[in-house]
Specification:
The complex is a heterodimer of chains A (212) and B (513). Helix content of chain A is 75%, strand content 0%. With 212 residues, chain A is mainly α. In chain A, 43% of the residues are buried. In chain B, a hairpin with a 6-residue loop joins β1 and β2. Classes of the chains: A mainly alpha (212), B mainly alpha (513). The A-B interface holds A 112-116, 131, 135, 138, 144, 147, 151, 154-155, 158, 161-162, 165-170, 173, 176-177, 180, 183-184, 187-188, 191, 194-195, 198-199, 204, 207-210, 212 and B 131, 135, 138-139, 141-142, 145-146, 149, 152-155, 157-162, 164-165, 168-169, 172, 175-176, 179, 182-183, 186-188, 190-191, 194, 207, 209-210, 213, 236-237, 240-241, 296, 299-300, 305.
């Protein structure tokens, strides 16, 4: 029951990402997703809690909802940008597209039968949905920071998929994944500073010198 | 021994960040590369035991790719000594393309990044566990992004941003593929651990639907890193904008290592009876990559981008060779070796041309043979080596793949390969021959850009040699491509028995012959 509620909240956070225009709101929503995923880790494995799982939940929550959002918040403070660049489809259009992606994810999730359903039928469609939204944000928002946020949402979707479905695989791989995520955001962040310094903007649609 | 292969570059890389003396750090780079090659050589004589409960081990395929990485890295490390002597100073310099001022990144970060990059690729070659491979691939992206961004100007910034973003998304998709593989492995009650050997042993127990999904996601994810079309868009930019020795490493070592990831899951799929499904996908991606690369090579005015697209073409050929199966697998593995040597050599020579002429536009480079014969000769040798002329090794490997296509009566694929190779030869020959021949034009290269002639206070450290027109290119940057060229030629004339045996054993483990 708790699992289902968490998953539905995850869908709502994805939708609200599509509709907001303030960068600080984006970062808060992605931080909230990190919190939801930490809770999801515990809720899914509630019957067989081990120290490993508690550590994983704790680690992921700290990285996804504290460390990474702090870094991104600092990035927008130093770059002095407040609002996101207008997306290709506009905010209304993005929301409609996001609504349309939901049945696609549900349909796909319904057709992928699980070997042993752990957390009910909702995990696969919701994690797929988060991945779709992440890719949508990367492709549709031409701003370096929103692309990083899209990447984080994509990773969150994959994390939800993994944590809810993989019962008997070593958890340290998941921890390594979290560390990788941290490293990726770090390197992206450094480059983000340089994009901002070199161009006085973080609009990647204007990064267009290289083409054939 | 496997532990040595891992720890030598890791510790040397961390040390490189701390060392202050440039000479000492360059010495460390070359010493590490030599040490790494020696340990790899020892692994040929006596195959080491697996460590970390079987997660890292050297099988035949792994040893092949590890050797390629090690040879290309050694060449790049020696080249780096000459390159950094000219380019290592952090003073600002003129960008040859747009005339803006920029400076290079700190040399310690560059060297440390190179060594850590070697460590990640070594782990990729040795990993038997799908999770470890994934972590190493991700780490290789992070270690190489600062290398691409060594010249701190906006074009390399754009290239490294594209590289990071596209490869990160690819790696995320590959992670999903690994999760699908884990689901396929836990289909029947208890989970099979995600190493190659147990997965092959219990291949029949894997859930075919989830395994198909796993193959698809891993192919797309690692294919992004390998540069298969249409996922290759980061590749030409990153190869063109990074220092040439980094391009050589990306093309000669990294793309292969990503291919190894695809080979591993292909191996599992073939054992589980999904051989034709995965071969069909590999063939499709391979043909598409060759077609896309051919079109771009024919219209290419920038010689480094031309080399980059050629990498897309050859990666397509590798995928196609495995897709054809049988002797094609042997051909693909041999071609991976030959292509790495030829492409690393060409990129290193291209770096020498770039520092001589200060331009990447093929049409502005004339008479390399007269101006710097030691560079021009190997630029020509590279042309014939990469386009698969006998007696170079590439001829043998390309011919093996082609013969397999015709043996299968797959005339459409065979003709497609022939047409693509032919057109690429035309594209390469027209541009490279014109660059190598002709009279020299020792005019002031900076005079070509009108906006530069006005003020010229901060001249770059590399520029004086170029401006004087004297081809005083360091031996450190001439020798590595020369040695690679000789090795490539030798491989075409005589395939050593040990190598032949390894290639056949590796091909057999991948269901070929």
């Amino acid at each position: 029951m708790v699992t289902q509620a968490l998953l539905i909240l995850l869908i709502l956070t994805c939708l609200s990402l599509l509709g907001s225009s303030r960068l600080s709101a984006y970062i808060r929503i992605v931080a909230l997703q990190g919190l939801l995923l930490g809770a999801l880790t515990l809720a899914v494995h509630a019957k067989s809690l081990s120290t490993d799982i508690v550590l994983l939940a704790l680690g992921s929550t700290i990285i996804k909802s504290l460390v990474v959002p702090r870094m991104l918040a600092r990035a927008i403070r130093e770059a002095d940008v407040r609002t996101a660049a207008r997306p290709f489809l506009g905010y209304g259009g993005s929301l409609v597209a996001g609504m349309l992606l939901l049945p696609v994810a549900l349909w796909l999730g319904w057709h992928l039968t699980l070997p042993h359903p752990v957390a009910g039928g909702l995990v696969v469609p919701v994690s797929l949905y988060a991945m779709f939204i992440g890719l949508f944000l990367i492709a549709g928002r031409q701003q370096a920071l929103t692309q990083i946020l899209g990447y984080l949402v994509l990773e969150n979707g994959i994390y939800a998929f993994g944590v809810a479905l993989l019962v008997d695989y070593p958890l340290w791989v998941e921890l390594a994944i979290l560390l990788d995520l941290l490293g990726a955001v770090l390197v992206m962040g450094v480059i983000l500073f340089d994009i901002n310094r070199d161009f006085d903007h973080i609009d990647t649609s204007r990064l267009s010198a290289l083409k054939d | 021994m496997i532990a040595l292969l891992f720890w030598i570059p890791v510790l040397a890389g961390l040390l490189a960040f701390l060392i202050r003396s440039d000479r000492l750090r360059r010495g460390l780079l070359v010493a590490t590369a030599i040490g790494n090659s020696l340990v790899v050589g020892a692994a040929w004589i006596h195959r080491p035991h697996a460590i970390w409960s079987g997660w890292l081990a050297l099988d035949d395929v792994g040893l092949l790719f590890l050797t390629i990485t090690s040879v290309v890295f050694l060449a790049a490390a020696v080249y780096a000594v000459g390159y950094l002597a000219a380019e290592g100073h952090p003073d600002s310099r003129r960008d040859f393309k747009e005339g803006v001022l920029f400076s290079n990144g700190p040399e310690s970060i560059f060297t440390g990044g190179l060594l850590l990059f070697l460590a990640t690729m070594t782990v990729m070659s040795m990993s038997q566990n799908f999770g470890i491979f994934w972590v190493a691939l991700e780490a290789s992206t992070l270690a190489s992004a600062p290398l691409i961004y060594f010249h701190r100007h906006h074009r390399s910034l754009e290239a490294s941003w594209k590289y990071l973003m596209l490869c990160s998304v690819g790696i995320a998709v590959a992670l999903l593929g690994n999760f699908c593989l884990a689901l396929a492995a836990s289909a029947h009650g208890h989970g099979i651990s995600l190493e190659v050997a147990p997965l092959l042993a219990h291949a029949a127990a894997l859930d075919p639907r989830w395994l198909k999904a796993a193959f698809l996601f891993l192919l797309v994810g690692y294919g992004t890193k390998m540069g298969l079309a249409p996922l290759h868009t980061w590749l030409p930019d990153a190869h063109a904008e990074s220092p040439s020795l980094v391009s050589a490493l990306l093309s000669g070592a990294l793309l292969n290592c990503a291919f190894l990831g695809i080979l591993r899951i292909y191996q599992v799929c073939a054992a589980a009876g999904l051989g034709s499904f995965s071969q069909g996908l590999l063939t499709g991606f391979g043909l598409l990559s060759m077609a896309v690369a051919t079109i771009y090579i024919l219209n290419q005015s920038d010689y480094k981008r031309m080399l980059a697209y050629s990498s897309v073409e050859h990666m397509g050929l590798l995928a196609l060779g495995v897709g054809l199966g049988g002797a094609g697998v042997f051909g693909a593995l041999l071609h991976a070796l030959n292509h790495s040597l030829a492409k690393a050599m060409l990129f290193l020579v291209a770096g020498n041309i770039l520092s001589l002429y200060q331009t990447r536009t093929s049409a502005l480079v004339k008479g390399i043979l007269r101006r710097a014969p030691s560079v021009g000769i190997f630029w020509l040798v590279g042309l014939f080596a990469i386009t698969g002329f006998p007696p170079f090794g590439t001829f043998l490997s390309e011919f093996t793949i082609l013969k397999r296509a015709f043996d299968l009566k797959d005339f459409a694929i065979g003709t497609a390969i022939l047409v693509s190779l032919g057109l690429v030869f035309v594209g390469f020959a027209t541009s490279i021959l014109a660059m190598a021949q002709g009279p020299t034009d020792p005019g002031d290269p900076t005079a070509r850009s009108p906006e530069l002639s006005g003020e010229r206070a901060p001249v770059s450290a590399a520029a004086p040699t170029a401006i004087l027109g004297s081809p005083s290119i360091s031996w450190f940057t001439v020798m590595p491509p020369a040695v690679l060229g000789v090795v490539l030629l030798a491989l075409g004339l005589y395939l050593p028995a040990g190598l032949d045996h390894l290639l056949h054993a590796a091909a057999a483990s991948l269901g070929g012959s």
